[in-house]
């Protein structure tokens, strides 16, 4: 991740190179007192590998997915993360990702809450279909509408808006209060459940201040942690977002 000063303070001309370099590193890597929450999408699943719509179905992680989770743990360990509690969905690909991360961090004894509110979006009749086959059956444009519009569900499935109505209320009621109370919280879930939530907002949409058009285009890599540092005052405004991909 980039090591740059985000505080808005420029270095003076009197500072030598060593002083500036030291300050830049301390800006990103020093221990922080502000609340932090770490979000991570599950590692690659067997259906991700096969390019299938997954949704509520429950495939296992691939070996690549397990390695992604281990790598995520290594990166978090380098940053010195010690978590107080964790949250995940009712689906095993998210649960196993969380288990691998916590085991590698030697933190499996922390409280873990599992809730279907954090489940992936239900793709209905698309579930289990290859995405290319679905395009052949219903057409490229229709499948794109189901996947990327906010309020149009696939047959017998959930729209992003419907997914939203169970995700953000859970985050605001169960997770956010602990974060603002100073707990280090890890959330292992799914691409759409981390993105989507009620009233046109999602966990990430709310944290980053994205529009509805922006959030449906946002992609989350499997097994890559995202650290949000929040302002403890008021509603918990994001002070810094760091994608831990190196």
UniProtKB/TrEMBL annotation:
Pfam families in the record: His_Phos_1
Record keywords, A-Z: Glycolysis, Isomerase
Catalysis: reaction(s): (2R)-2-phosphoglycerate = (2R)-3-phosphoglycerate
Active site: 42, 120
Protein's pathway: Carbohydrate degradation; glycolysis; pyruvate from D-glyceraldehyde 3-phosphate: step 3/5
Site (Transition state stabilizer) location in chain: 190
GO terms of biological process kind: glycolytic process
Class in the EC hierarchy, top level: isomerase
SUPFAM superfamilies per UniProt: Phosphoglycerate mutase-like
GO molecular function: phosphoglycerate mutase activity
Annotated binding of substrate, by residue: 41-48, 54-55, 93, 120-123, 131, 147-148, 191-192
InterPro entries listed in its UniProt record: His_Pase_superF_clade-1, His_PPase_superfam, PG/BPGM_mutase_AS, Phosphogly_mut1
Superkingdom field: Eukaryota
Enzyme Commission number(s): 5.4.2.11
Keyword flag Isomerase: yes
UniProt similarity note: Belongs to the phosphoglycerate mutase family. BPG-dependent PGAM subfamily.
Identification of the protein by name: Phosphoglycerate mutase
